[in-house]
Design goal:
There is one protein chain. With 338 residues, this protein is of the alpha/beta class. The protein has a single domain (23-337), classed as Alpha-Beta Complex (2-enoyl-CoA Hydratase, Chain A, domain 1), CATH 3.90.226.10. Helix content is 47%, strand content 14%. The protein has 12 helices and 10 strands. The strands form 2 sheets. The protein has a 6-stranded mixed β-sheet with strand order 1-2-3-5-7-10, sandwiched between helices. The chain has a 4-stranded mixed β-sheet with strand order 4-6-8-9. Strand 1 and strand 2 (68-73) form a beta hairpin. The longest helix has 29 residues, at 309-337.
């Protein structure tokens, strides 16, 4: 498939390839790109105690005993990365950066670990917002689709780089993590999954590919051949299968995930600082630049805008199925708590 002409890039935003930038310089460039947005300091007084009251898309609580911030996806509309969810994740990341900016040692950091989970039963995150994709592609709204894709890249890159701070990130997967959801899981230092969880990159089903980091992250964790095999297959993987491949650190029984995370962090509490250091070492020895992610995203946008109507109809059927599944999950969850 022929790709569109390359997008003209702002020289102030894109660094020269002859002068590789540091991680700190990249983060500063992101702040310059969003002068009044996701990387600006919060205007309201910040504190871990009341943080959970400031978000609608995220369920947040602070475990003071373990210095752990638990961040759950509420998925009130669709079980995916909606623009509203992306905006709140970015705002949370800005809060964390602001809180921890003056305390950069592992022992003094008020947050030692960040745990990402889902409040929706059996669904961690099903990826990109397919309903939005269909709407924007049919309308020919390339710039809007690109802005959405950039917001996804900003989010995963910030989690991958840990905001330049030495805390540890954990993905607690208690349901399916598909497409962009799987990509987001791969940005974490530790992945703990309940046995019933499924992982996969189904984009090939509608002639697309995961464009917000899957290939980059899988290449670093596995290798290019297996990364491409996973993307081309579109198949679902069991948690145990990914543990055998080295992608999942711990598999536990259904319903035991949260307790397993607490026990895991408590058991390795004295090692969290060195794990944070090893995360920095991994990013230094197997770097993923922001520019790499953006370059892949540009190819993703071009490919998406060239999709045929038959591909969009397949995407539409999948989006409808996801919403139905979300409705059933909410009903089952309410019945379980009644």
């Amino acid at each position: 498939m022929a790709l569109a002409q390359p997008v003209l890039r702002d020289p102030e935003f894109w660094p020269s390839k002859q002068t590789p930038e540091t991680e700190t310089e990249t983060l500063q460039r992101l702040r310059n790109r969003h002068p009044a947005g996701v990387f600006s300091h919060p205007q309201l007084p910040f504190g871990l105690s009341h943080l959970g009251n400031t978000f609608d898309q995220l369920a947040i609580r602070f475990d003071e005993q373990h210095n752990t911030l638990w961040c759950g996806f509420r998925h009130p509309h669709r079980p995916c990365f909606t623009r509203e969810l992306l905006s709140e994740i970015a705002r949370l990341q800005a809060h964390l950066k602001h809180l921890c900016s003056a305390q950069t040692s592992g022992t003094d950091l008020p947050v030692r670990a960040v745990v990402w989970y889902s409040s929706l039963p059996d669904m961690w995150n099903l990826g990109g917002d397919l309903s939005l994709f269909i709407q924007l592609i049919r309308a020919g709204a390339r710039d809007d689709l690109r802005r959405y894709a950039y917001a996804c890249v900003d989010t995963v890159y910030q989690n991958w780089t840990k905001l330049g701070l030495p805390f540890v990130t954990v993905a607690l997967v208690q349901g399916d993590a598909l497409g962009g959801g799987f990509e987001a899981v791969l940005t974490n230092d530790i992945i703990i999954a309940e046995r019933q969880s499924k992982f996969g990159l189904p984009e090939i089903l509608f002639n697309m590919f995961p464009g917000m980091g899957a290939y980059s992250f899988l290449c670093r964790r596995l290798d290019g051949i297996r990364a491409e095999q996973m993307i081309r297959s579109g198949r679902l993987y069991e948690a145990e299968e990914l543990a055998t491949m080295g992608l999942v650190d711990l598999v536990v029984e259904q319903g035991e995930g949260a307790a397993a995370v607490r026990e895991y962090l408590d058991r390795h509490r004295r090692r969290l600082a060195v794990w944070g250091a090893l995360s920095q070492v991994r990013r230094r020895c197997q770097p993923i630049s922001y520019e790499e992610l953006i370059d892949v995203t540009e190819i993703w946008v071009d490919t998406a805008m060239d999709l045929e109507e038959s591909d969009l109809r397949r995407m539409e059927r999948l989006a409808v199925a996801q919403c139905r599944r979300q409705a059933r999950a909410r009903t089952d969850g309410l019945a379980a708590t009644a």
